[in-house]
Amino acid sequence: MQPDWLPVGIQQWLYSVVFRVILGLIAGLTTALHFGTQVTDDIGVQISLVIPSVIAAIVSCLSFPVLSHLRTITIPGFRVEFIPQKIQKLSQKLSKLIPGILSGLLYIIITALMVYPMVEEAIKDDKWRIILSPVTADGVAMGFLLSFINREIGIIDTIKRNPKQAIRYGTVGLIGGLIYILVRLLFTKRYNLSQFGAYFDIFIEVIVFSTLPGLVGFLGKGENLEQTIIPNQGVWKSAKNAGLFFGIFFFVGILYSLNYIQAPHELISIALAVGLLTGIVGGTGPVFAGVVLIQHFTLRLILWWQGYTPWNYARFLDYATERILLRKVGGGYIFIHRILQEHFYQRYSGNRE
User: What residues does 334 pair with on adjacent strands?
Assistant: First the structure.
């Protein structure tokens, strides 16, 4: 099932909106679980921070297609003869990240402005630093996620070890972590270099920034299975693999958060954030396990809502098979009568026009 199944442009637009709202809900919850533990120790306040985070995440996700369209208008893909072709290709690839960066920046601004009044009394010094530091990290992650999501719905049948991808992801994470630490060294009072504990904190943060993306990259997307045995096999496999990513990285999040927590609930909060994040982005972009599930659910919802398909598609097809209208082949179905197939094709083509 693909978004192209929707016959009218307005319905494809509706699919995009619903998908991004659902993605924003999950992303907002995930980021709130992370930055909430960094700005306050009060569990009640942390729970209340979910609302501004979700609002900001939904706005950020909805802004991405608009910003992508503006990028294609303002930055056309023309070639300049005196600039080497490799540099032009690199610049075009980097320009594709601009909408994601701007969407992430929008999340940072909205979240910070909404969160500040809620935690102002609980924070004594460096209020903006304490808020912006974790929110910025979450905004950058969201921007990259939006940049690599593909419109076409893929599947993740299998997971394979990918050492090369692990090295690439780990290197990017290491560079990002070093920049993050350098900024905090120059502009904040996070590290007191006169104490040995500060160097230990820096070491732990370098390990976290490099190994966490590396682990995500190590468990990459394998080859798709050619034979379909049961209906929705690819979706169920993707769901299983998303759950696998969540389970593995939930415990990884527990280990990585031990150096930061001040209360038991913060341990679970950070672990849930790490588990949800990797459950969403597990795999190899642009095919992410969790994103595939959201895309498939959204498309199924729109098709059912508009009356194009029943909600339980497999049961409907099995019913048609019992009436000798279809024949079941593996996990798929074929028409028995060619005239019936042509009838539905002509009717569908007429609706599209």
Answer: 327
Is the pLDDT reported for residue 88 higher than 80? no
- Distance CA(19)–CA(13), nearest Å, equals 10
Q: Kindly list the domain boundaries of the chain, sorted by start residue.
A: 3-158+222-305, 313-352
Q: What is the mean pLDDT of the segment spanning 136-149?
A: 84
The C-alpha atoms of residue 255 and residue 164 are separated, in whole angstroms, by: 24
Residue in 196, 199, 189 with CA at minimum distance from that of residue 130? 189
DSSP symbols for 264-312: HHHHHHHHHHHHHHHHHH-EETTEEHHHHHHHHHHHHHHHHHTTSS-SS
Q: pLDDT tens-digit profile of 164-185?
A: 878 888 888 888 788 878 877 7
Left if phi > 0, otherwise alpha if psi is -120 to 50, otherwise beta: which for 283?
A: left
**Chain centroid, CA 99 distance in Å:** 15
Confidence class for position 105, pLDDT limits 50, 70, 90: very high
Closest CA to 341 of 352, 325, 330: 325
Q: Report the percentage of the chain scoring pLDDT > 90.
A: 13
Q: Exposed, middle or buried by CB within 10 Å (0-12, 13-18, 19+), for 269? A: buried
Based on the number of CB atoms within 10 Å of its own CB, is 212 exposed (0-12), middle (13-18) or buried (19 or more)? buried
CA 243 – CA 255 distance, rounded (Å): 19
Helix residue ranges, H only, the chain: 9-39, 43-48, 50-74, 85-95, 98-119, 127-148, 163-187, 196-218, 233-257, 264-281, 289-305, 313-322, 338-352
Q: How far apart are the first and last CA of the chain?
A: 20
Mean pLDDT of 317-345: 80
- The torsion defined by the Cα of 236, 245, 53 and 58, in degrees rounded to 10, comes to -40
For residue 20, give the nearest of 295, 305, 293 by alpha carbon: 295
**pTM metric for this prediction:** 0.77
